[in-house]
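Async update (no meeting this week)

Hi team, since we skipped the sync, here's where things stand on the single-chain job. The sequence we agreed to prioritize is pasted below, unchanged from the tracker. I ran it this morning and attached the output directly underneath so nobody has to dig for it. Comments welcome in thread, and please keep replies under the output.
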Amino acid sequence: MISMFGQFLKRRRRKRRAFSLLEMLLAIAILGTSLAILAQIADTGVSAAREARALVTARMICQNKLSEELLNISAGQTPTPIMESMVESLDSESMETFFYTIEIAPGQLDGLLVLRVTVEARDSEGTQRIAVYALDRWVVDPALGLEEAEAEEQAARDEIANGGAV
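Output:
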């Protein structure tokens, strides 16, 4: 009995020299699913890289604009808020458009201002937000005139140190 079954299997194995239609369809379905998953993973990687690049550029622009504003404040200018203004990208190959805003709010202590610079990266059409970066700094309000008061105080100290002679 076992030998008849063994002979049947041997004959069946010898006859079969190609794949069946069902096996081919199953292989094609597995291959198609694998390719679709790989394409989705590649797309996710590309969009993450684009977002990271936009975020780095937004950070550099934000630091640049904050430095400009701090220089203006140190020169005695009162900071002015900027609603939304387009700014050139520091990266010549960038496809995104960048917008920045400057917000000024009173600080928690008298005489201090909170200066917030926000840079937003959008796609080339300017509709979809890709990345946002913001920096906050506390600065002394230049409208208080504290720099002049410090200069007067220093002059008074110098006068006292010189024995009253100017």
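Quick observations from my side:
The two ends are 127 Å apart (CA to CA).
The mean pLDDT is 84.
Reply here if anything looks off.
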